[in-house]
Amino acid sequence: MRDSQGEGRVRAVRVLIVNEVLVHELLPMDACIRLMREALATFSRGDAVQPLRTLVRLPDGSGVLGLMPGYLGEPRSFGLKVVSVMPGNQGTAYESHQGVVLLFGVIHGEPLAMLDATAITAIRTAAASAAATDALARADAGDLALLGCGTQGRFHLTAMAAVRRLRRVRVWSRTRANAERFAREAPVPARLKIEVMATAEEAVRGADLVCTVTSAREPILRGAWLAPGAHVNAAGACFATHRELDTDAVRRALLYTDCRESCLNESGDFRIARGEGAISDKHLLGELGEVLNGKVQGRLSNQDVTVYESLGIAIEDLAAAHAIHQRALATGKGAWVEWSGAPSA
Q1: How far is CA 114 from the centre of its chain?
Q2: Exposed (0-12), middle (13-18) or buried (19+): which is 88, by Cβ within 10 Å?
């Protein structure tokens, strides 16, 4: 690394490498929920820089590469997530979302860390849904419906149990074998038994907490199924052409999101309902961070249906990466690579 004066001086830079296993060790769910509250509140105060993600699509339509740069003021962090989304990986040994989070120094711009994005995305997405649930769901909510039994289903179960006392858990998957395996293997409080339902409607009817965590292109959740007072975390559809919620579910809900600009431009759940004339931009009441900051009101009554439209934004990844980096420094864990040499004699 040469300095700006061109004198050829080189400073030692050590880069942290964190794999999937270590991400899970250094980023526990309860800590990540607190972190997401702080990061989203900071974002909605304007102390962040985050352009819309850039997508590079494979010519045959089999996958995309997403580039998600950003800066967050608290915790102060600067970097980029690069993630591939390959829907065809379902049923294989590979996750559908894979990539890395790159963390850089805010003052000098030096590389600090390269971290597994699959694990970070899984934890922080569910943690943000938990923060939304705590802010928007009824205090007594505890009848959970999970639509989707993959990685996000497992982490959302853990996250929902962290912010609400669950009294019932029902799951549905398009493949019943996946749902049955989920019921056997997913972590759940000892007092509960996961119920596998034959249809999404059977899972949702009467539930006061609903999480949609699928790769669906067409609606799997219909507004007619939602009980008064239900809260929905819509976390699966992150493209403008995909949606998990039908128009009626979006129309009848008090709608919140992680990032207003992302929702208006990238959310199929929102954009398709708007394109059908059922809602306008004003239907989006605000960002979760605005609710946390007291700028926007959340649930008005126990009868309201609330929806948190989760797009997954870069500042969440950066906050998580920063926390992992700090924890690795404190514990000495992780692999450290000499990125550039020490000054020569």
Answers
A1: 19
A2: exposed
Its pTM stands at 0.93
Sign of CA dihedral 131, 158, 164, 147: positive
Give whole-number Cα distances, 285 to 30, 51, 80, 257, 328, in Å.
27, 21, 28, 8, 39
One DSSP character per residue, 154-223 reads HHHHHHHHHHS--SEEEEE-SSHHHHHHHHHHS---TT--EEE-SSHHHHHTT-SEEEE----SS-SB-G
Cβ pair 157, 188 in contact under 8 A = yes
Q: What domains sit in the chain, N to C, each tagged with a CATH number?
A: 13-120+315-340 (3.30.1780.10), 125-313 (3.40.50.720)
What H or E segment, with its residue span, contains residue 150? none
Which tokens go with 28? 């526990």
Compute the half-sphere exposure of residue 236: CA atoms within 13 Å on the CB side of its CA.
Answer: 28
Q: How many whole angstroms separate alpha carbon 252 and alpha carbon 92? A: 37
Integer Cα distance of 83 and 96 in angstroms: 10
Helix (H) or strand (E) holding 345: none
Identify residue 324 by its one-letter amino acid code: I
Predicted confidence (pLDDT) per residue in 98-117, tens digit: 999 999 999 999 999 999 99
Share of the chain above pLDDT 70, in %: 95
Residues making up the chain, counted from first to last: 345
* pLDDT single digits (tens) 227-248: 999 999 999 988 889 999 999 9
The answer to whether residues 270 and 250 touch, using CB atoms and an 8 Å cutoff, is yes
Rounded to the nearest 10 degrees, the angle between the axes of helix 29-44 and helix 117-136 is: 70
Would you state the structure tokens that stand for residue 59, as one six-digit string?
A: 């010519």
* CA 280 – CA 271 distance, rounded (Å): 9
